[in-house]
Design a protein that fits this description.
By secondary structure, the chain is of the alpha/beta class. The protein is built from 18 helices and six strands. Helix 13 runs antiparallel to helix 14 and helix 15 packs antiparallel against helix 16.
């Protein structure tokens, strides 16, 4: 027996962060029954299905999709940041999102879909910090970026075949790298974090993906150095700050944050790492941020967060071409069609939705 309901039930429990006992109590069922459903030793009746679907906050249709089709594996290069049920919840959210993403991609010819491929020379072996700078510059060159600001890092990664999904409900991480079952890279990023923090987290995970870090370097520090160098390469830092400074203006750093999408504190790190300011000057700035409670939420207006849009565009294309119905579109988007239109109206204006609905 492999109806897929057992896998779906496990996934839904992970998404909700609930134990079998908690689901049983909420649904008015026995824990033994929940265990048998999950292990496919017994199929739930229609009444039982409705009960545990309600307890887990999922539509009944979620449990009838069949076996789980997407599988991801965490890639931990340094300190493991997720454990137990927290890791399971993130993986469940990613798998559920990936199923919808892959289903949307399947509507089109494979050659039209972005496929990930390492550029020549990557993953790049590095054994010194200067080599990390060079690797970041090499990747920018391979992707045709020059040294200009990256307008939308999330869109860039998706265009390069790296799937980027947002997850919620766990404060133990900002982003994490996963491997899809076909070996494709997937990045999970926490929903709701400021744009500069999100971009740095994604660039950090890109560093883990693109670097082969030697034993002489700490993998996490190497990924941090890569993130800063990829978002603002050495030539851009020198152009903006000069070759040597005794002080940096806070308003100056704020404007650079908005131009390049790199936090004020990360700009201080870049200036220190490239020898533009000395370590004592950098420490003074870091101390000021922390003493004023600004190390987590920097002063001034926040950088807007980036939101992965590729899945939405794929679904809207299919709707426009009459490939799928609004009902199927809602399934792929993971929300009722009316709720989706309402959200789009809030983001982009009522007139656009009225014309395009």
């Amino acid at each position: 027996m492999n109806s897929g309901i057992g896998e779906r039930l496990k996934m839904a429990r992970s998404l909700a962060g609930m134990s079998q006992q908690q689901v049983a109590e909420q649904a008015g069922l026995s824990k033994m029954s929940i265990s048998k459903y999950e292990n496919e030793r017994m199929l739930p009746s229609s009444d039982a299905l409705i009960r545990f679907a309600g307890a887990l906050g999922q539509p009944v249709e979620f449990f009838l999709r069949g076996p789980v089709t997407a599988s991801v594996t965490p890639v931990y290069r340094g300190r493991k940041t997720l454990h137990g049920k927290h890791e399971a919840a993130v993986i469940a959210q990613l798998q559920e999102w990936l199923e919808r993403y892959l289903a949307a991609e399947s509507l089109y010819p494979p050659e039209e879909m972005a496929a990930f491929a390492y550029p020549d020379g990557f993953p790049c072996a590095v054994a010194a910090l200067d080599e990390i700078e060079e690797a970041a510059e090499a990747l920018r060159a391979a992707w045709g970026l020059g040294d200009a600001p990256i307008d939308n890092l999330t869109e860039l990664l998706e265009d390069r075949g790296i799937k980027v999904g947002q997850v919620s409900g766990d404060d133990r991480f900002d982003a994490c790298l996963f491997r899809l079952d076909d070996d494709g890279p997937v990045m999970a990023v926490k929903d709701g974090i400021p744009g500069d923090r999100l971009r740095f987290s994604l660039a950090h995970e890109l560093g883990h993906l693109m670097l082969d870090v030697g034993e002489s370097l700490d993998a996490e520090k190497a990924a941090n150095r890569f993130a800063g160098a990829f978002l603002v390469p050495r030539s851009a830092v020198i152009r903006e700050l000069g070759r040597r400074r005794d002080a940096l203006g806070r308003q100056e750093l704020h404007l650079l944050k908005h131009k390049y999408g790199l936090s004020m504190q990360a700009w201080v790190f870049r200036a220190r790492d490239l020898g533009i300011v000395d370590a004592a000057t950098a420490t003074r700035y870091f101390r000021w941020f922390r003493q004023n409670g600004l190390h987590l939420q920097e002063p001034g207006d926040a950088l807007p967060p980036e939101t992965p849009q590729r899945l939405t565009r794929l679904v809207l294309r299919a709707v426009a071409e009459d490939v799928i119905s609004h009902g199927r579109a809602a399934e792929l988007l993971g929300m009722p069609w009316a709720d989706f239109l309402e959200r789009q109206a809030e983001l982009h204006g009522e007139d656009l939705i009225a014309v395009g609905a």
